[in-house]
């Protein structure tokens, strides 16, 4: 019983996070200006990282935790690079 | 894909509630990103997902792995610490870039004023003698 409860909860959480990814992706596509698109991208990678974490809970493996850590690291670097590009027109001065 | 680790009932209940709460809070933040009218309004919404939603899902994952391996496993604290440190930095840089871009669009640009009217490239009559 508890396995079924946990399994359905994890699947429901993944579906809800998929809807959140859809919202962020819609903002990434539609966004009226470039900073809106960067904001949508930031939200998108946080949501994808959360989906990877729920996959880790679902399978019980440590592998997904490291994938989530790498997604968080590279997403932050990408956001900072995009913000620098919007500010200055170049990334590395 | 119906699959889950075999946890005792209390741990399964805690993990399920924490995961669902985190997912719903993240969805609320993303809907706010989609629906709010202006960029400065939109900037507030996704931080809900990156603080409270991520915190709930990480605590659920910590409880799950601690019960599975029957010892304390808190390596998810690394992700929580990293996101807590990096989200304000990235959003602050983005807010400054957005402010700069809206000033450039409004015409009172601080970057173009010295180029057009400054003493280096302006008309020579504006130069001091």
In short:
The complex is a heterodimer of chains A (93) and B (129). Chain A is mostly helical.
How would the blueprint of this fold be written?
The complex is a heterodimer of chains A (93) and B (129).
Chain A: H1 2-30, H2 34-59, H3 63-88
Helix pairs in contact in A: 1-2, 2-3
Chain B: H1 9-35, H2 39-42, H3 46-69, H4 77-106, H5 113-117
Helix pairs in contact in B: 1-3, 3-4
Structural commentary:
Chain A is an all-alpha fold and 93 residues long. In chain A, 87% of the residues lie in helices and 0% in strands. Chain A has a single domain (2-88), classed as Helix Hairpins (Orthogonal Bundle). Chain A has three helices and no strands. The model of chain A has no long low-confidence stretch (mean pLDDT 90). Chain B has 129 residues and is mostly helical. Chain B is 70% helix and 0% strand. Chain B has five helices and no strands. The chains are: A mainly alpha (93), B mainly alpha (129). Chains A and B meet through helix 1, helix 2 and helix 3 of A and helix 1, helix 3 and helix 4 of B.
Shape of chain A: elongated
- How many separate structural domains of chain B? 1
This entry's quaternary arrangement is heterodimer
Low-confidence runs of at least 5 consecutive residues of chain B:
112-129
CA radius of gyration of chain A is 16 Å
- The overall average pLDDT of chain B, rounded, is 82
Q: What portion of residues of chain B belong to β-strands?
A: under 5%
Rg from alpha-carbon coordinates of chain B: 25 Å
**Number of helical elements of chain A:** 3
Total number of domains of chain A? 1
| Number of distinct beta strands of chain A | 0
Q: Helical element count of chain B? A: 5
Kindly identify the CATH topology of chain A: Helix Hairpins
β-strand number of chain B: 0
Order of helices and strands of chain A: HHH
Name the CATH architecture of chain A.
Orthogonal Bundle
Largest interface: A-B, 57 and 58 residues
| Overall 3D shape of chain B | elongated
């Amino acid at each position: 019983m508890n396995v079924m409860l946990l399994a359905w909860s994890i699947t429901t959480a993944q579906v809800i996070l998929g809807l959140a990814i859809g919202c962020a992706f819609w903002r990434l596509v539609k966004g009226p200006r470039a900073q809106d698109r960067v904001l949508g991208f930031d939200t998108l990678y946080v949501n994808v990282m959360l989906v990877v974490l729920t996959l880790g809970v679902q399978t019980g493996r440590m592998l997904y935790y490291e994938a989530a850590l790498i997604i968080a690291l590279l997403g932050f670097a990408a956001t900072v690079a995009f913000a620098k590009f919007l500010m200055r027109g170049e990334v590395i001065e | 894909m119906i699959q889950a680790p075999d946890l005792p009932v209390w741990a399964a209940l805690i993990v399920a509630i924490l995961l669902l709460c985190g997912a719903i809070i993240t969805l609320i933040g993303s809907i706010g990103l989609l629906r709010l009218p202006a960029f400065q309004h939109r900037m507030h919404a996704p931080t809900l997902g990156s603080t409270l939603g991520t915190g709930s899902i990480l605590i659920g994952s910590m409880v799950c792995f601690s019960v599975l391996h029957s010892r304390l496993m808190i390596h998810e604290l690394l992700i929580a610490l990293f996101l807590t440190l990096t989200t304000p930095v990235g959003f602050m840089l983005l807010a400054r870039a957005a402010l700069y871009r809206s000033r450039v669009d409004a015409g009172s640009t601080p970057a173009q004023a010295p180029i057009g009217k400054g003493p280096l490239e302006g008309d020579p009559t504006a130069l001091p003698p």
